[in-house]
Amino acid sequence: HKEMLSKRFSTPVHECGYVSRFREVHHLLSLKTSGELNYGCTISVPWVGEHTEDFLELLAQTLLQVGSGYGPFLIFLGDTVSGPLRARFESIDFCTVESFGTGYLRALCESRAAIIFGGYNSLVDVLATEIPALVVLREMNDREQSVHAESLAALLGHGLIPVQENNSTVPELHDKLTALMGDERQARPAHHVNLDGAEHGAHALVKLL
Description:
By secondary structure, the protein is an alpha/beta fold.
């Protein structure tokens, strides 16, 4: 891709890396990746697509089977998630429903595992906080999220496990989630993905100026 871009624009291409919002704000919010694991899982549902509500019902059933043995679950829901689904998760005694804010990044730092959708920011958040995650892949024609998440999963192994939003079952979700949370030694998987894109990009711009 670098060669293709270089030829297309007739200029050298500088690869800077991922830009991580966590890396940019962690010093302001006193967020650390080495804190105690106070939560079993952090779940993020930023927006609802065609199959999301059906998936969330399967997820609620899965959480009831998993139980409270791994600790409390924090579930961050976007504004488009329906009231009945919010109530469904609130009815599970070890689950707390939250709104998105700085508490989301803090929860990731303190959780054993995460369930996220496959958007760029969500993926980079779990890379930055070094937390294993189930990555829910939405069905999209260009497969951009799937290709991205599956490429990272191939690199990170057990650290990221893709699941399909429109083709998952309760037994599958149960087995994959408990596998992620079951071994505390896996709670902070090491990786070598470059997350310093903001800093490297800034240096590149300074050189141009």
